[in-house]
Amino acid sequence: MSDIQRATNLQDKSDKPVIVALDYPEMDLALQMAKQLDPSRCRVKVGKELFTRSGPKIIESLSDQGFDIFLDLKFHDIPNTVAKAVRAAAEMGVWMVNVHASGGRHMMEKAYSELQKVQDNRTLLIAVTVLTSMQKSDLLEIGLDIEPQQHVMNLAKLTHSCGLDGVVCSAQETAMLKGQFGSEFALVTPGIRLATDSADDQQRIMTPSKALQSGSTHLVIGRPITKAVDPLRALAAIEEDIANNV
């Protein structure tokens, strides 16, 4: 992706920073939720379960509704396999797709290179650093005796050097990452909750306004919106938190 295309894809992040996680087991349920949202006010995320059950049809249906789609499949495999998967995602027209930074330089560079072969490509490619459900004890169990923030920084530096557009990280890490890489490097943060919301299974969480103040460019929000009686009103509350505090 050229610098101009990258800037175009990132420049409206302040207008539409919320990505609603459509974490449903069936396409019909995801589309029912999408119909209650407004594509001019948010983007949507399609994850592993929904895509595995529904395939490209869910991407086509959400695109037809006007949504920008973050395909959150966290590819992690041998370089050629990941590169071809990333290309397939771009050819479906998704707005953003991700890989695991822990797959290493060769994997990420191969994926980035393959993406450049897609005609008129506008898909952003980002990498997952450390899952927001993980703490230092979890890293230690897989042989990494390192603080989560330091591991995030190491993987983000690798991602940046491979030419990718940004990373998935905790909102607690965005200030240091923005300081390191600047505002043109996307910082996509799950674990976003209003002060009155349940933390659910996220360990490192933050409110929408504080996350954006800290440097997040995009906020992945699921249950606080999708489990609300009125999802659009829940989105409005998040927008109000942002408008009043950022």
Low-pLDDT stretches: none
Strand order of the largest sheet: 1-2-3-4-5-6-7-8
Helical content band = 40-55%
Estimate nothing, just give the exact number of structural domains: 1
Listing every helix as H and every strand as E from the N terminus to the C terminus, the arrangement reads HEHEHHEHEHEHHEHEHEHH
Number of helices: 12
Structural class: alpha/beta
Q: In CATH's first tier, which class applies? A: Alpha Beta
Structure, described:
The protein has 246 residues and is of the alpha/beta class. It has one domain (3-245): Alpha-Beta Barrel (TIM Barrel). It contains 12 helices and 8 strands. It has helices at 3-11, 27-35, 48-54, 56-64, 79-92, 105-115, 136-141, 148-161, 174-181, 208-214, 223-226, 231-245, and strands at residues 18-21, 43-46, 69-75, 96-100, 124-128, 166-168, 186-189, 218-221. An 8-stranded parallel β-barrel has the order 1-2-3-4-5-6-7-8, surrounded by 8 helices. Helix 5 runs parallel beside helix 6 and helix 10 (208-214) packs across helix 12 (231-245). The chain is globular, with a radius of gyration of 17 Å. The chain starts with a helix and ends with a helix. The mean pLDDT is 90.
